[in-house]
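Onboarding guide, step 5: your first structure request.
Type a short instruction followed by the sequence, for example:

Predict the 3D structure of this protein.
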Amino acid sequence: MAIKDLTLFLGKDIMNRYQKAIEDWSNYLGEENVDTQNESVVDAETATFKTVQKIPAIIYPKSKSQVQHCVRIAARYKISIYPISQGKNWGLGSRVPVQDNCVLFDLSRMTRIVDYDDELAYITVEPGVTFIQAANYLRERNSRHFIAVTGGSPDASLIGNAMERGDGIGPLGDRFSHCCDMEIVLPSGDCIQTGYSRFPGAKVGNLTRWGIGPHLDGLFSQSNFGIVTRMSFWLQAHPGWFQSLVFTVRNMSQLNLVIDNLNQLQAQGVVKANSVAVWNVYKMIASDRQYPWEITSGQTPLPLEKIKRIKSPWGKSEWVGVGGIYSPSRRHARADRKIIKKMLGSYTDRIFFINEAKARVMGWMNRPLQWLTGTSLKDTIKALYDESVFLGFPTEKSTRSTYWRKKFSLPRTMDPDKDRCGIIWLCPVVPFMSNHLSRAIKIAQKTAEEFGFEPQIAFIFPSERAVYMFPSIVYDRDVSGEDEKAIECHDKMLNSFIMAGYYPYRLGIQSMAALTGTNSHYDELVSRIKNLLDPDSILSPGRYEFHASPIFQHPKRSADTERSNTCL
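The system replies with structure tokens like these:
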């Protein structure tokens, strides 16, 4: 095996420890599962924004026992390690560790679906299992259920998404609230199981979250306390009657009214949690095509008024909503449709539904329409009904938008890291009220425009109380100076959200220090748990650690907040 010259970035004093660890991993896993080749390592060091972290090696354990053994080797030599599942965390860091000199623990070869039950509606998987793998597995078995997918890559990991408390689409989209039965390798190499699964012969380990005694599952999400090697996910039953909802909104004033009425629809249960997404026209068009260089003379950013010159069904609307309506029967579906139209119809430019009958009619119309106009309805039918993300079909639609400003055509196989697409996500949480959402949208728009980026914005509704908002900064990394400008834009936008009280619900490696320096007893307790489980800090150093000096401003605390921080 050609071992990379570690002295380039480690120095001689610690090089020996890394070399010995790499030799031990190679002897145990086989050299084919330990990669120190320069090309592979450089690829792993590349994200969708500028990174400087160096990776000494990549190892590929294939089982829980191999993970345990490899962790013990890391602990023996006090080598920092950084586990990933599939590394498709585009816009938030991809495969890159938070800090320098972490050996990448790539779990993408752990691809077993360990258990599945269609009666009790769960599936148990390893960290390498992807959304498309799970979706195909269920369809091949004619399952009555589906897994909530994300808007991200179909090749992303279920467990990776869950451990970031990532969002999904559909009623079980709050993924971490609908999983259990975690198998976790600790930094010592020991292994634990959570919930009822820790009891011999327990019949409900896959079926209930809590178990008996302290509930530990949450400690291992958005943390660096352990490596999850197995987890069970609950599945959503296919509805008796499904229809897609699409509506367009002309301006912000109309959107405010739509938001307030959508809140009532969700509170009443007509619209389910995580079952409607709203995108602004920049985000919508970027998922359908690339930047219209031909009408801008090469200038950026794209003015809103020029969008109307783009051939697109969304060009005259500033906002587009897409949803899935789940009803137990056709009669219920008619009633749901009537209620939704009554509450949203007056404030939208267009609102329509696609059910089985409409999808069939659109299919019959497709050939003559394509012959007359050159426009095909095939992709529309597929996206909104036949293979809807709201029914568990993963999509590459959002991945397409990462190529928005690239000047070459979309490749057949999209890889935003290798293709030097620039994208940085932010994930603020906003109260489900139009005045709050309007304020947050203005922050995103103003900051993006200040730095010369289009304000691509999307949001979903995980409950009737809160909104997850997703502004993204999209650019071309091959344009000189854009990397630096994008990070500066990200930092200012995130700080503006924090100052307004809209904190993020997840962080990328570019913002792990954004919430440090709160000086709370909560942070002290988390640090004490970390020190107990991982005294040498070998596992993912810097990941969601909130105990250093702040680099962002924080709102002034009220007297009540200060008092609450004195309680343990």
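Each response can be followed by summary notes, for example: Residues 558-568 have pLDDT under 50 and may be disordered.
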